[in-house]
Amino acid sequence: MPGISAIILAAGRGKRIGVPKLKLVSDGEFFVNIIVKKLKSSGVDRIFCVIHPDDYDWSLEHIAGVSLVLNPETDKGMLYSVVLGLKKLTDEDGVMIFPVDHPYVSVDTIKNILLIFSKKPDSAVKPAFENKSGHPVIVPRQAADKIIYISPDKGLSETLREVCGVTETVRVNDRGILKNINRAEDI
Questions:
Q1: Phi and psi of 131, rounded to 5°?
Q2: Model pLDDT for residues 134-143, shown as the tens digit of each residue
Q3: With 80 as the cut, is the pLDDT of residue 41 above it?
């Protein structure tokens, strides 16, 4: 299987929900740790977590098994966090981009998109449920290298369409890929 790293995007301040999303809890566990466990149980061991500097001490105490990447300029948007994470890659064949506000993605979904990427390592891979694409997304290395030089003014979806070329969509039976947590009632 190709070498894959993951970038958990967790630098947002959670203004709509009132707390940084990496600190949100489901079933007694922080969102970020739920995702780390699912990634590791799927065979992804090299994980970067992009956080705001204000969350650094908290992250050192509460998150294990990740390399922390600081984003002091969260107002630049999600793509800027992606770029900061991508700059940490070394020899990976691809990278899984995983927003921290999607903790309900199943391990089976992660394994499915990893399997498809292993068969088509030059393509981006994204899951879809009921014809709606969601997260996480795997980006091949050649596209990841291009994203670093894209203007951070663009959105993540637009940038991925621009640089990835072929995108494989994996149909999954997992509503969690669409469940973006923005309000307390979403948990």
A1: 65, 20
A2: 999 999 998 9
A3: yes
> What's the alpha-carbon Rg for the chain, to the nearest Å?
15
CATH class held by domain 4-186: alpha beta
φ/ψ of residue 100, rounded to 5: -65, -20
* CA geometry: angle 110, 175, 116, nearest 5 deg: 30
Confidence (pTM): 0.93
pLDDT confidence band for 161 (50 / 70 / 90): confident
Residues with Cβ within 8 Å of residue 68, at least 6 apart in sequence: 48, 49, 51, 56, 59, 60
Provide the β-strand partners of residue 158: none
Residue 96 φ/ψ, nearest 5 degrees = -95, 125
Place of tokens 């929900």: 17
**Torsion angle of alpha carbons 153, 156, 159, 165, nearest 10°?**
180
Residue 65 near residue 36 (C-beta atoms within 8 A): yes
Question: How many other β-carbons are positioned within 10 Å of the β-carbon of residue 162?
Answer: 13
Per-residue model confidence as pLDDT tens digits over 89-139: 988 999 999 999 999 999 999 999 999 999 999 999 999 999 999 999 999
